[in-house]
Amino acid sequence: MLKKLIAIVAILAILLGGGGVFYISALGPVDSESEELITVVIPNGTGASAIVGILDEQGLVKNKTMAKVNARVGRYNTLQANTYMFSKSMSVPQMMKAINTGDFKYISKEKFTIIEGATVPQAAESIAKELDFTKEQILEKWADKDYLKTLIDEYWFLSDDILKEGIMFPLEGYLYPETYFVSGDNVTIEDVTESILDKTDKVLSELKDQIDASGFTVHEFLALTSVVENESLFAKDRPTIAGVFMNRLAKPMPLQSDITVLYALQKKTVAVTYADLEVDSKYNTYKYSGVPIGPVCNPSQAAMEDTLNYEKTDYLFFFCAVIVCHV
Asked: Quick one: which H or E segment has residue 84?
């Protein structure tokens, strides 16, 4: 209580003394000419001081100390969690007031979600439902080799592996499952793709050392993880299923994953026939050894971590995500 009282007295001294002009200036826009909108996510239960930190991380605060002073004296008592769109031309009080009132004017109005285990066509469909693109337009852009080469140059985790003959959807496995918020006018497919790949970059960068130590390339790792993701009915089974596949690879023996066969056929069913198993595709892990030629879905970070930290057993088989025998 004493510390709070001292802080209030110090704040009043600033405001009543010669620092008033500096205080007002310090709360002003970072760039009064800027029109770029910046996404600011305010989680549930975030206090005024923490919000200042979030705004500062996004480059929206000129003077963090004075902004925190404002957070203390601004009477922001009804702060509302949401995703807001602010610009550097806004002052700290403007942004704090918008968050305090949940001003609809500044709330992000467009978003799309890529779910865990979704394929590229499913991701394109999800985006097309929310934004002003067709699924076909998105898939066409994501298949454009010239465009893909620019992405390979830009993102460390993308390689020429995505352009190999036989790859069905080059960006499969690289579209990180997440809810994405879109802002601004004239948003392009390239803008959307960059937002997704930036998130993928963040996730893979955190795991880069572990992936390197695994002996897999990033492409191979995502291919294996994608199989683990969609073979698992329950999250708790993923480390064990990953261990089964690691044991098969070590033998070596085929992965024999029905998921890869269904992907090769682009079928959605739980019933895989003997005829299906004969499909001549490098995704078919009954016919071709090792991991499939590419990922068969877009896996979550949890699935990546479970694959890296797989359960070490001598199991070689599983059924309905439950291990039934071992060697």
From this structure: strand 82-86
Contact 216/173 with Cβ under 8 angstroms?
A: no
Count CA atoms closer than 13 A to 182's CA, side-chain side.
20
Q: Coil, strand, or helix at residue 92? A: helix
Quick check: helix, strand or coil at residue 156?
A: coil
| Mean pLDDT of the chain, nearest integer | 90
- Separation between Cα atoms, residue 93 and residue 99, nearest integer Å: 10
Q: Give me 130's structure tokens.
A: 């929310």
CA distance 16 to 5: 16
Q: What is the DSSP letter of 114?
A: P
Q: What is the mean pLDDT of residues 168-187?
A: 88
Give me the phi and psi of 174, to 5 degrees please.
-105, 0
**Confidence tier at 11 by pLDDT (50, 70, 90):** low
Per-residue pLDDT, averaged over 114-141, amounts to 97
d(CA 279, CA 158) in angstroms, rounded, equals 28
Tokens for 66, please give them.
């004075």
Q: Which of 106, 323, 132 is nearest to 234 (CA)?
A: 323
Q: Dig out the tokens for 41 from the structure.
A: 């996510």
> Residue 88 — φ and ψ, nearest 5°?
-70, -5
Decide: 109 and 83 in contact? Cβ < 8 Å. Answer: no
Q: In degrees rounded to 5, what are phi and psi of residue 229?
A: -55, -50
